[in-house]
Amino acid sequence: MKQVQLAAYGVPEQVVRCNEVPDVGAPGPGEVVFDVLAFPINPADIAFCTGHYRLRPPLPATPGAECVGRVAAVGAGVSHVAVGDHVINLQRENWTQRRLVRGEDVIAIPKGIPLRQAAMLRINPPTAQLLLSDVTKLSAWDWVVQNVANSAVGRLVIRLGRAQGIRTVNVVRRESLFAELQAMGADACVVDGPDLAERVAAATGGSPVKLGIDAVCGEALSRIAACVADDGAVVTYGAMSGGQPVIDRNDLMFRGVTLSGFMLGRFLGRRSLAEIRAIFAALGAEMLAGKLDAPVAEVYPIERIAEAVAHAQRDAKGGKILVAPNGEI
Q: Which residue in 9, 53, 237, 300 is the catalytic one?
């Protein structure tokens, strides 16, 4: 079978290889084998390839934080999924044609979800949901400000927030994105810049902003923190700038703003397996109903993985880059 492996840590398109490896074999008791139907290329996957992610396993290593698969075989004692079910995998190493995992690591999802969307269910939707639920208590009509609002997570924050009555101020780098974000429910949009706090205050009519969501770090985080009301909360879940978090000490010390970091695995780890399955069941139902989706720019075969990861690093690519290891989706 075909599997993506890293020959080294470095420039992603130069170090990824599509290699032939032995098949995973039959599942043992409590195990599941599934065919990988599609996987997305996420920023964390790119960081993994460069060697700058929190995990840096010995080489050769297989990237891939998420995928959608179809169950091919189940071992004794597995009853929550059956052959033919579509599943997501809670474990990594998904840039491959077939996986053998513990039964508890796969979660069945509705077959009616388009595969291109199902491939993106595992990470971004629960990230957006938990950013809104776990950092600070939010109620209907509360304001949230976020940067990189046109990202997959940003778009989901808009939609999930809208469904809960939470209002969003969405910070982007160009005004041409406003109409698209407003069409999906953004209450206000502003262009990032040194006077961000003043323009956010104008957009909210002076209403307090309870939560700031950052995916950039560096000075961008400081600008988001300046938008948040006294005793508000700021959370960072990414570092697109490559920089360390920067925040004005006056915001922390005198205004009482709290800063925390978000990692999906850590937040899911606070929950039982039943609770995790319930989260994905609810998000899967929303995706099946067409209420949650994300644009896809292009789908590549696994043999063209180098082209795919190069494409995933371009600016303004218009959507997520997917790979279909077992044929077209």
A: 53
Using CA of residue 289, residue 291, residue 292, residue 296, what is the dihedral sign? positive
Give me the pLDDT at residue 261, please.
97
| Confidence band for 242, pLDDT divided at 50, 70 and 90 | confident
- Rounded average pLDDT over 106-129: 96
* Residue whose tokens read 């920023």: 43
SS3 199: helix
CATH code given to domain 124-265: 3.40.50.720
State CA 323 to chain mean position distance. Answer: 16
Please tell me the pTM assigned to this model.
0.94
HSE-CB for 208 with a 13 A CA cutoff = 11
Asked whether the predicted pLDDT for residue 317 surpasses 90, the reply is no
pLDDT at 217: 96
Please check the confidence at residue 113 and state whether its pLDDT lies above 90: yes
Q: Determine what percent of the chain is predicted with pLDDT higher than 90.
A: 94
Judged against a pLDDT cut of 80, whether residue 316 lies above it is answered with no
Asked about 53 being catalytic, the answer comes back as yes
pLDDT of 315 > 90? The answer is no
Average pLDDT for residues 133-138, to the nearest whole number?
Answer: 98
CA pair distance 239, 145, nearest whole angstrom: 17
- Residue 87, strand partner residues: 69, 108
Amino acid, single-letter form, for residue 146: Q
The CATH architecture one would assign to domain 2-120+294-324 is Alpha-Beta Complex (3.90)
* φ, ψ dihedrals at 20, nearest 5°: -90, 130
- Give residue limits of the domains in the chain: 2-120+294-324, 124-265
Q: How far apart are CA 218 and CA 210, in angstroms?
A: 21
Cβ-proximal residues to 12 (8 Å cutoff; 6+ apart), any chain? 46, 49, 50, 309, 310, 313
The residues near 32 (Cβ < 8 Å, ≥ 6 apart) are 71, 73, 74, 75, 78, 81, 87, 100, 101, 102, 103, 105, 106
Give the Cα separation of 56 and 140 in Å (integer): 41
